[in-house]
Amino acid sequence: MDGIDHLADERNKAQFDVDAMKIVWAGSRHAFEVSDRISKLVAADPGFRKDNRPMLGRNELFKNTLRKAAYAWKRIIELHLSEEEAAKLRFYVDEPAYTDLHWGMFVPAIKGQGTEEQQQKWLPLAYKMQIIGCYGQTELGHGSNVQGLETTATFDPQTDEFVIHSPTLTSSKWWPGGLGKVSTHGVIYARLITDGRDHGVHGFIVQLRSLEDHSPLPGITVGDIGMKFGNGAYNTMDNGVLRFDHVRIPRDQMLMRVSQVTREGKYMQSDVPRQLVYGTMVYVRQTIVADASCALSRAVCIATRYSAVRRQFGSQDGGPESQVIDYKTQQNRLFPLLASAYAFRFVGEWLKWLYTDVTQRLQTNDFSTLPEAHACTAGLKSVTTTATADGIEECRKLCGGHGYLCTSGLPELFAVYVPACTYEGDNIVLLLQVARFLMKTVSQLGSGKKPVGTTSYMGQIEHLMQCRSNVQRAEDWLKPSAILEAFESRAARMSVACAQNLTKFTNPEEGFAELSADLVEAAVAHCQLIIVSKFIEKLLQDIPGKGVREQLEALCNIYALFLLHKHQGDFLSTGCITAKQASLANDQLRSLYSQVRPNAIALVDAFNYTDHFLGSILGCYDGNVYPKLYEAAWKDPLNDSVVPEGYHEYIRPLLKQNLRTARL
Ligand SMILES: CC/C=C\C/C=C\C/C=C\C/C=C\CC/C=C/C(=O)SCCNC(=O)CCNC(=O)[C@H](O)C(C)(C)COP(=O)(O)OP(=O)(O)OC[C@H]1O[C@@H](n2cnc3c(N)ncnc32)[C@H](O)[C@@H]1OP(=O)(O)O
Ligand SMILES: Cc1cc2nc3c(=O)[nH]c(=O)nc-3n(C[C@H](O)[C@H](O)[C@H](O)COP(=O)(O)OP(=O)(O)OC[C@H]3O[C@@H](n4cnc5c(N)ncnc54)[C@H](O)[C@@H]3O)c2cc1C
């Protein structure tokens, strides 16, 4: 536009090396270079334009997504992109598509649950996209309760086949992404039945559509489930409905790493836990945590830049009004979200490590860390997606009226993001899994079994149950030991209180149901402790770059003290801290906001998002918001004509009629 950087003064205030922070954010120099190169490539390519999405009808929108996915694949092949680069390209194209499920769930399900032989047969086809797959688990009647799924896979020893069938309306597959219009195959979850016996839910590779003309194969009824929340948004995805009428598949299409059915129809279980059938969900939950930091940082980047541009009230002697970012209330809403974005980034990095570690152990039949990996992925998926969905909406409000415009990028980001609180496990259902894990850990404390990993803090249970914080001045809250002790004792005391209350029930399951709201709060406290402690651990690493460590320390303290303030009811009622100490934490938080304020723009610049990816006039890099908003308004299709279509039918007759009434 005018070529001026309207945020230049803000950028000049930064007290740290932004380029070094970009590398910390990306995870490594290599990751930064890949991300930077691919994001620019996508931004520069008109084939990946996305600003017209909210205006398109469903058919047009969907066709456009098909075009982009095919074009993305063409570019991946032409440019010989590596797997890492291709994944980055899909990420920066920023449009939910069937490819997310193909690469994100179908391929991992075969890798995780297929035998070597099955992997050799199916993966090359999937890698070349000669087949396109989805993940068909959820049904109309059951999503959370996987054991309640009704689709059946009955072994027929006569033909050496499974017969896949949908016995009821509620057994219809419902929701799988990519299923509605695109997938040729699916990993379909169904109850395995051999010789009249039900062996529970297992995964099967089922071909759904012809590879010749894309028509559904005999016995298959398939379609899209309809429009979802928001314009554009997740409607680029063909979430589907699917029914089977006695569809036959060869026996070797049951994913047989965990259990097998022999030619004679004998059911056999390997010595791996049956929970590995759920392994794909553990994998995806882990990626969702990393994705939460991307979505939240994007919203925060928009809200922070706009808060520095926007001025309201406070003009002195005819001078400029105050930047809204200087209001303490704005900082108190915005900076904890900025800190959360960094916190989720680092816990996401750690969770990726944990997942890799558990996968390597599984290869050598060491299943000992699987329960913890399940609890961590489930809990962190839940806590980070809830905070991110709420955070995106808060960023919209932080941008005032303009945040409600589609051109702010925030409505679409919110609409695309909110289902993350539901998919891959409803957040409450997942927290209840964490609570079960915690109750088990507490119940084993007396047995001499040492808690390990993320529950190792419970090893000092006597201390944590009676310790009192020794914070006396606001600055004392800057000590990692003070923060950790408060968070550990809060989490431990909440879990122990639940465990004690559970003993009052003769039926433990009844007790668990009755106390479930308290159990969820205990699970949240445990997960928040993990996030805080992983941020603190990150700060123990070597962090190069002028001033970078200081900024991260400030953000870590903001994240922890904001949580402490928000959940002070927990900390006070469990006696971990006093009212005076809670108030000191709040004093410290205010001074941390002042420390972050001059660095705020640079801290969001460190995300290194292109204007294309942000898709937001309010968040544009140069801060030249008003001319861009004004120009964009005139491009709205409603402004194609000065007098709107429909004037002669609906406005003119009304005005004429009112004129007659007025004359009377
Ligand atoms: C547009 C986006 C673009 C890019 C985004 C980038 C990244 C994001 C990537 C992808 C996102 C994109 C699209 C989303 C696609 C969405 C897909 C889906 O939603 S797939 C369907 C997911 N469904 C669920 O998550 C269902 C939730 N339910 C369950 O997981 C389980 O049934 C439940 C955990 C509730 C367990 O139920 P329950 O009946 O109590 O237990 P069960 O008897 O089955 O098992 C008991 C035993 O097993 C342990 N356990 C349970 N789950 C696991 C597991 N996964 N791993 C290991 N162990 C497990 C459980 O703790 C218990 O153990 P104990 O007996 O107590 O020891
Ligand atoms: C956009 C989107 C994409 C999806 N993609 C796929 C896909 O590709 N493949 C696939 O298989 N599935 C997919 N799903 C389905 C998704 O995994 C399920 O919707 C999800 O697991 C939640 O299950 P549900 O719908 O059965 O919710 P329900 O379990 O019916 O939840 C309804 C309410 O009941 C509560 N509740 C349920 N059980 C309990 C309990 N035990 N205790 C306390 N409260 C409880 C929940 O907290 C919630 O408030 C997708 C869903 C969405 C929204």
TrEMBL record:
> What cofactor requirement does the entry state?
FAD
Localization (cell):
Peroxisome
Entry binding sites for FAD = 138, 177
Q: Which GO terms describe its molecular function?
A: acyl-CoA oxidase activity; FAD binding; fatty acid binding
Query: What sequence ranges are listed for the domain Acyl-CoA oxidase C-terminal?
Result: 480-656
For the keyword Flavoprotein, the answer is: yes
Q: Which PANTHER family match?
A: ELECTRON TRANSPORT OXIDOREDUCTASE, PEROXISOMAL ACYL-COENZYME A OXIDASE 1
Keywords in UniProt for this one?
FAD, Fatty acid metabolism, Flavoprotein, Lipid metabolism, Oxidoreductase, Peroxisome
Provide GO CC annotations from the record: peroxisome
Q: What is the protein named?
A: Acyl-coenzyme A oxidase
Q: In this protein, which residues make up the domain named Acyl-coenzyme A oxidase N-terminal?
A: 17-132
Q: Which residues form the Acyl-CoA oxidase C-alpha1 domain?
A: 278-439
One Gene Ontology BP term is: fatty acid beta-oxidation using acyl-CoA oxidase
- Which family does the entry's similarity section mention? Belongs to the acyl-CoA oxidase family.
Pfam families noted in UniProt: ACOX, ACOX_C_alpha1, Acyl-CoA_ox_N
Organism of provenance? Camellia sinensis var. sinensis (China tea)
Where primarily located? other
Please list the residues that make up the active site: 424 (proton acceptor)
Cited InterPro entries: ACOX_C_alpha1, Acyl-CoA_ox_N, Acyl-CoA_Oxase/DH_mid-dom_sf, Acyl-CoA_oxidase, Acyl-CoA_oxidase_C, AcylCo_DH-like_C, AcylCoA_DH/ox_N_sf, AcylCoA_DH/oxidase_NM_dom_sf
